[in-house]
Amino acid sequence: MEECFDIVDATSGLPTGDVRPRSQVHREGLYHSAVHVWLVTPDGRLLLQQRAACKDSWPGRWDVSSAGHISAGDTPLPSAARELHEELGLSFDARRFEQLFVHLERQASVQRGAPFINNEFNHVFLISLSAEEAGTLHAGSAAFALQESEVSDVRWEHWREVQRLYATSDPTIVPTSDLVSYSRLFDILQARHPA
After folding, report:
1. CATH code, domain carrying 48
2. Which domain holds residue 66?
3. Predicted model pTM
4. For the segment 155-175, what is each residue's pLDDT rounded down to a tens digit?
């Protein structure tokens, strides 16, 4: 059964009361909501996940630590926790999810030979790891349980390198349509991890 999303107002991001299936949402460019969860280490490294080859958009590209749509009737925080657990096998107390901002992504592309329109309000969360947690969650760690249908690999990169990948439109990373808006993440990381 296909996942359904709440259709949201293009200006406010608030649900309109309309619910549509995922395929229609992306085919017609209907506005909807999603979550982005970033994990950051004390030395400023961000976790990137590589999207599985079977994904309907941007297969094989590096992406946010964990990301996913908000299903119809759901809200951002439970969705963020669910996606992190499903994709990476990680669970954190809800108080660890720091909601930073909401980013409106407007992007039209061709994915697997068909138009794919992504008009999406992304609720961006940050989880700051302790040194002990960061030591446990190294790439290849058994602490990760990668969801095969979503994630093929993970790696850690300093936030400055991740910022460079976005800024240069590196073909190995999922692009953003509005780096100025999304760069709020890097402004926050610059303040907390200036090295």
Report:
1. 3.90.79.10
2. 4-192
3. 0.96
4. 999 999 999 999 999 999 999
